Amino acid sequence: ISQIKQLIESGYKEIILTGVNVGDYGNSFDKNLYDVLKELVEIPSEFRIRISSIEPNLLTDEIIKLTAENEKLCNHFHIPLQSGSAEVLKLMQRRYTASFYKERINKIKELIPDCGIGVDVIVGSPGETDERFLETYNFINELPISYLHVFTYSERPNTKAITMEGSVDIAERRRRNNMLRILSEKKRNEFYRSMIGKETDVIFEHQNYDGFMKGFSSNYVRVINNYDEKLINEITRIKIKDVKENLCLSETSTVNKKISNLAG
Fold this sequence. Notes:
Blueprint: H1 2-9, E1 14-17, H2 33-40, E2 48-51, H3 61-69, E3 76-82, H4 86-92, H5 98-111, E4 116-123, H6 130-142, E5 147-152, H7 170-194, E6 199-204, E7 212-217, E8 222-226, E9 235-244, E10 247-250
Parallel strand pairs: 1-2, 3-4, 4-5, 8-10
Antiparallel strand pairs: 6-7, 6-9, 7-8, 9-10
């Protein structure tokens, strides 16, 4: 917490909490992640906190509720799923089920309707049959999530998975990866379009893109605006008027040309 206070005093407006397993913080002492978040939101300054990634079984109702009630916590969770198949999750020895994962997503959306939700998925792991992959695809397709990070399984020496039956052909792994990447773009576009007409808080970056600037909203929407030095590294309330090429346009932006070179 003292380090975060130093960063805030140095002018940083967004602090990202990251680690191997952020949600497990406090296992060896008497202060868990929720306790830390409660302390952080009491720091008297203008800033926001983003949790980099958190396992679904560690994303508690208390954390979700605190996020819903406090603007200093970004309305954005990145929650690993890995598979929507119950059998594949068992093979992966995950500490949660697909039904529990769905319940967590629905809880978030109940309290924070515009929350951005990212999902990690692994395709082509041993035991992922065609049917089990389709379970994952359909499961994700029905969830109100915002984007995917898709990873393709690859063999690693000295791991349990390398000795498992049901190896998936490499070409098939690539095909499944591509299917989920296309689904991710569909989900992102739907989420961005759901933000049209709504206000959101954005921190714009310093880089000048031919007269425009970009930033991320609290709920992890990429926004483009006319370049204005006064907005750099400030939490700015803007209204979204349109979506073009994976970018949300602010109400005051005058983008009227092809912006594919800006959509990064």
